[in-house]
TrEMBL record:
Transmembrane segments: none annotated. It holds the Pfam family ThiS. It comes from the Bacteria. InterPro entries: Beta-grasp_dom_sf, Mopterin_synth/thiamin_S_b, Thi_S, ThiS/MoaD-like. NCBIfam families: thiS (TIGR01683). The gene is thiS. CDD domains: Ubl_ThiS. This is Thiamine biosynthesis protein ThiS. Coiled coil: none annotated.
């Protein structure tokens, strides 16, 4: 499956089909992230069940601490 993540084309395997799977690939923790799929913000409580489809545009914003 081909999708666009933060402006870059990405190919996912057949096992990586949900928003949660995508966050695992990028090693982004759910609690520190906001995900938008096709210009719609996805609620954290449905990351596990929100399926991605070929051609989807995904934006991932994650927060990091530091000083």
């Amino acid at each position: 499956m081909n999708i666009r993540v933060n402006g870059k084309d990405v190919q996912l395997s057949e096992q990586e089909t949900t928003v949660a799977d995508l966050l695992d690939v990028y090693k982004v923790k759910k609690v520190f992230s906001v995900v938008e799929v096709n210009r719609k913000i996805i609620s954290k409580n449905v990351y596990e069940t929100t399926k991605l489809s070929n051609g989807d545009a995904v934006e991932i914003v994650h927060f990091v601490g530091g000083g």
